[in-house]
Recover the amino acids of this structure.
């Protein structure tokens, strides 16, 4: 009998103590958060099952949410310190429990979304916690790293939606801090995850038309090129296509200049891929009837060709992509509508022609100018055949119309005599390569040959063109 009384007394005492403790914790929530955090860290250190960790984690996050709802950011801040400690220690381990991982991401995102506007400092703590997790798993857990980078992307896009651009900048900073670890160790999957996140955030920034943040991203990408190598072009390409679709001239200029800077340090295989992306962007501009963006891209393609003129292989790749864009852009248009597209290309031809006339064939670098000029004239002949195949206009008349528009440009880079000389060279090459077609179309347009611009000695400077003066 006395044993039953003792047992009942003990149970009553335990119950009273438990009730007292609950009442006290409710009256002193800072103690509750401290106790829950202490239990969470202790259980993690002792290697307790994920089920126990999950319960402790949810209890901590619920208390933080209560503090936020009660407009007590100081109390919530104390809990965030525990979150950072737990996340760092947990992901330093195996972090293999999918359910616990998913709950960590969900709760962090929930606290971030709830505090980004009223308590930005607390939201910033969630970003730091996520970066701590990424740093711990980057070398040993590819799947967790992918998940964390997706969370970074979600955070950044949410910040853009709420017009908290500072947070997007902060998140990008956290991602770029991972560049040395990702690329220094040759972690291919992690590298692509990181660059994909940068590209997605960059596209979101472009959608919001924030040229300042785009400038910051492109500057960081250029700084990362030594570590990241050719892969650094991937987010730039994604952003470039997005900028054409959204129609932002200033942002398009920034991205083209960044791409051109990166392009200067790439090999021929990477150049071909980059120029193909430029071409896709230009074709998108054509479909959207965005003449401004199309003109910018063509100008940059010509500049890329000029930058690579000493490199015959690379400059040839540039020319091929350039003429592919021009062929697409002039479909179903008149000369008056598309003439301006040709002017940068014709000026490139002028450059190569004058370079050869001035210096002559003296070394390999100069020889590449001849090769590029030859390639350029061949592509112009091909375009001429496409334009004149319906018989509505002759090649000579077509070239004369282009020349007439070309000379009307104010502040032209070349004198009128140089422009005429190049157009004459183009037509002489045409009549020597396509004699039957030229004869059927009436030969050379007399208005362009009233003054004889080419001597035999000058034509001899271009032996690979095989031109005989007529």
């Amino acid at each position: 009998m006395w044993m039953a009384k003792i047992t009942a007394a003990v149970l009553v005492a335990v119950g009273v103590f438990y009730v007292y403790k609950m009442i006290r914790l409710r009256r002193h929530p800072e103690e509750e958060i401290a106790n829950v955090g202490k239990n969470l860290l202790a259980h993690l250190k002792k290697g307790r099952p994920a089920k126990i960790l999950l319960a402790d984690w949810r209890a901590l996050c619920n208390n933080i949410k209560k503090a936020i709802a009660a407009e007590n950011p100081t109390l919530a801040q104390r809990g965030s310190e525990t979150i950072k400690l737990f996340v760092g220690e947990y992901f330093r381990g195996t972090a293999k429990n999918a359910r616990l991982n998913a709950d960590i991401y969900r709760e962090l995102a929930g606290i971030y979304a709830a505090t980004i506007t009223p308590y930005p400092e607390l939201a910033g703590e969630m970003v730091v916690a996520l970066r701590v997790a990424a740093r711990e798993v980057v070398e040993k857990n590819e799947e967790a790293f992918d998940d964390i980078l997706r969370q970074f992307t979600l955070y950044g896009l949410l910040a853009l939606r709420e017009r908290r651009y500072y947070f997007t900048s902060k998140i990008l900073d956290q991602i770029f801090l991972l560049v040395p670890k990702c690329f220094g160790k040759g972690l291919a999957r992690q590298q692509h995850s990181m660059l994909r996140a940068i590209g997605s955030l960059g596209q979101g920034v472009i959608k919001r038309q924030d040229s300042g943040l785009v400038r910051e991203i492109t500057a960081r990408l250029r700084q990362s090129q030594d570590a990241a190598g050719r892969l650094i072009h991937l987010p730039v390409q994604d952003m470039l296509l997005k900028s054409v679709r959204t129609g932002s001239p200033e942002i398009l200029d920034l991205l083209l200049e960044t791409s051109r800077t990166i392009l200067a340090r790439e090999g021929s295989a990477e150049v071909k891929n980059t120029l193909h992306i430029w071409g896709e962007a230009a074709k998108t501009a054509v479909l959207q009837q965005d003449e401004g963006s199309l003109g910018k891209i063509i100008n940059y393609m010509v500049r890329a060709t000029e930058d690579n003129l000493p490199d015959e292989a690379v400059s040839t790749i540039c020319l091929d992509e350039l003429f592919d864009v021009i062929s697409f852009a002039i479909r179903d248009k008149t000369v008056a509508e598309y003439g301006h597209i040709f002017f940068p290309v014709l000026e490139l031809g002028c450059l190569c022609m004058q370079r050869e006339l001035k210096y002559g064939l003296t070394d390999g670098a100069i020889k590449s100018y001849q090769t590029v000029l030859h390639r350029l004239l061949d592509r112009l002949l091909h375009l001429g055949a496409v334009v004149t195949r319906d018989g509505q206009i002759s090649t000579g008349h077509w070239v004369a119309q282009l020349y007439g528009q070309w000379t009307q440009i104010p502040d032209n880079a070349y004198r009128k005599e140089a422009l005429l000389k190049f157009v004459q060279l183009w037509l002489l090459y045409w009549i020597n390569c396509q004699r039957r077609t030229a004869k059927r179309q009436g030969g050379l347009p007399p208005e362009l040959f009233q003054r004889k611009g080419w001597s035999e000695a000058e034509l001899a400077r271009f032996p690979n063109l095989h031109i005989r003066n007529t």
